[in-house]
Hints:
Structural class: alpha/beta
Number of helices: 5
Distance between the termini: 117 Å
Low-confidence stretches: 251-264
Radius of gyration: 32 Å
CATH class of the largest domain: Alpha Beta
CATH superfamily of the largest domain: Cell division protein FtsQ/DivIB
Order of helices and strands: HEHHEEEEEEHEEEHEEEE
Number of domains: 3
Mean pLDDT: 85
Number of strands: 14
Strand content: 25-35%
Shape: elongated
Amino acid sequence: MPVPLDVKLMNVTAGALTLVFVGLVLAVLLGWAMRHPVFAIRGITVQGDVAHTNAVTLRAAVMPQLSGSLFTLDLARTRSAFEALPWVRRAVVHREFPNRLRVQLQEQHTAAFWGAQDESLLVNSFGEVFEANVGEVELDHLPRLVGPEGQAALTLKMYRELGPRFAALDATLDQLELSASGGWRAILGSGAVIELGSGTSDEVAARTQRFASTLTQVASRYGRHADALESADLRYAQGYALRLEGVSTLAAVSSNKSNPQTSR
């Protein structure tokens, strides 16, 4: 026999009411759990890189900023709180039942100073600028990069390209500057200033390589070694101008000749 329509309606209504009742019970239980003190955040486990700071300091700085329980805590906001701290590049936050957080940290790995001498800005290995107390660690061995805002990654890339070329002269690239007009300038550990000119990274690298491969030979013609270099200007199509201790010369290096020609 087919089920009467009124019976069908009663069954549907009863099922719906049951679902509503169960949903209300779950909502009450969930609300109680969210407010229950047992789920309030009691501690944070810090893992990963903590070379420039310690876990106790990190927890003390972030804990006052946390609000809510294990279930209601805003993980994105908590992550941002950690990443706002000095030396922290990235943080990954996980909930740990019933009342703890576990944070995996990645510290900043410093590659260079950034900007003027009186600034506390640094560049990490990804070319990102960050601010930290440089007095906390020994950073005297780091080079200094200077350039327009937003050009730190490009400047670091160029430094990594040019550093080995100067190292072939037993010289250290201490400072690399990028002007607003796109010109490059290098300052060596000896204090020598080298105008590298503008252009693509390949063009600047090629001029630098030409200079590094011929400087020793050019300097020897004037009874000097490469470490006698005071300044150089590489902004020439086929050569460079340089100044040695007590000697000023123009070195015209032909791209199709193996030996450089020099003239006063």
